[in-house]
Specification:
With 338 residues, the chain is α+β, with helices and mostly antiparallel strands. The chain has one domain. It has 13 helices and 16 strands. The strands form 6 sheets. Strands 3-4-8-9 form a 4-stranded antiparallel β-sheet. A hairpin with a 5-residue loop joins strand 5 and strand 6. The longest helix is centred in the last third of the chain and has 18 residues. The protein is globular, with a radius of gyration of 23 Å.
Length: 338
Amino acid sequence: MTLPTAHEQMVRHLELALKQPLAVPSERIDVSFLHRSFCIAGLPIKQRKEANYSRHDGAFSLNVTVPEQTLPDGTRLSVGVPFGPKARLLILWMTSQARDLQRRPGDRWLEIGRIEDWLRNVGISGKGDGPAKTKDQLIRLTFSLFTMFLKGESLDLFKSDRLIESAAFATGDLEHYAEGNLGRVRWPMGIELSQRAYDRFIGRDAIPIPTSRLAEVSHSAMAIDTLVYLCYRLPEIPTGDSDLVSWKQLIAQFGNRETPSKFRETFEASIRAAFRAYPEANVDLTDEGLLLRYSDPAELQRAFVALAPPPGPEKLRRKLRNRTDKARPALPGAAAGE
């Protein structure tokens, strides 16, 4: 019998908590999920001209390719490699939706109608060019092919698949996209995860991420990468131990082939932003790299408890009005609501 990993224990604890009300009504469990492979190797930080991309760290590699497509009217659809913070947040959303406890087992179809509320929760507003840029990343993810290699002691594993098997776009939207007219592109009605992506998302390699903390780093791809990496690595560190992730390792996993000094200069502020978003993590930034120390699992789990937002003006007025109505004595013979 295989003992559950630290991550599996945390996931079980969180999913049990999601089914039960908390002792304090103003609190709620606030958790998203991400597959382990995306915690180890990030997507590109910035837009790339090439239609392919790769990351590697000696034991694992992630490869992304986006072949050109031909639409029914002959239009050539060139979709670039997904990049930046919004692509990362969309993968988090897909994984979290697949693991939704209210989802019917085996249901791979994700309704897009629910995405805007989640995006607002993680700091992407519906104003400005935020929605158009997010739709752009969703289309890039739709047509991307992901290939992963994992090097073992006695064998190497290879897996290749799409995250999204099919999608329902409104008529003409892909033509608008091909013309670069993002403003006219609507959200697709829904997307269907590939069977392999769905199986991975609901499997034992899902890493819990505090949703409310994502809002603090949603503007920065590197800050998101650091946050999810900490969520993945810290529960694996034994009591009293520490682990140094060198600048060279960080560049291999998250950088763009910069020198260590350039990487640190460019991304130190984003890495520190991730530390501020996850203060329960026992981590230091040193001249050698990222020093990860054992972090108390009980402390880490508190990151998943979020305070409910304060009521808005109208909700507050209703609350005060209800209190007044309850305090007001009923008139003799008066019917409720009169």
